[in-house]
Specification:
Elements: E1 16-24, E2 29-39, E3 44-53, E4 59-71, E5 77-90, E6 93-109, E7 115-125, E8 132-141
Antiparallel strand pairs: 1-2, 1-8, 2-3, 3-4, 4-5, 5-6, 6-7, 7-8
């Protein structure tokens, strides 16, 4: 069994690249994306990200600028919010919409903190619909 460490025991205050995939319930489709988790304070992170959704017709993607706060004794859990820009292209016509992200997550790291795993359910609140998206991610800490 490999021990898993919390954020506070791994490489603190390190920028992490996250590759993630998931499922969105509104369109009933899979997605793949990338995020960068940038530490701002001891437990606060800025998280720009983009996700592409594998829709049946056209293209769909979502860009996000989020912030999260680590909570709990071992800082394994986090909560956050941010701005979403949702884009959909059908028949060469783009439609864009703004939304508000609300999310929670669990992030664990390997001993030494170089690699990590994340699970993150999120709602994107917007006019007309509120898609729910669950993603699983693998993170890698940058730098020495």
């Amino acid at each position: 069994m490999v021990p898993i460490l919390g954020h506070s025991q791994g490489l603190q205050n390190r920028t992490r690249i996250v590759l993630r995939g998931g499922w969105e319930t509104e369109r009933e489709t899979g997605a793949a994306g990338v995020a960068v988790r940038i530490p701002v304070r001891a437990v606060v992170e800025l998280i720009p990200s983009v996700d592409y959704f594998f829709v049946d017709v056209g293209d769909a993607w979502q860009g996000n600028i989020d912030a999260s706060v680590r909570i709990g004794k071992r800082k394994l859990f986090y909560v956050g919010s941010g701005l979403a820009i949702l884009n959909r292209k059908v028949n060469n016509a783009w439609n864009s919409d703004l939304g508000l992200n609300l999310f929670v997550g669990l992030a664990v790291e390997t001993p030494g903190g170089r690699f990590g795993l994340l699970v993150e359910p999120r709602f994107t609140l917007r006019d007309g619909s509120d898609p729910f998206y669950v993603s699983l991610g693998v993170s890698y800490a940058l730098g020495p």
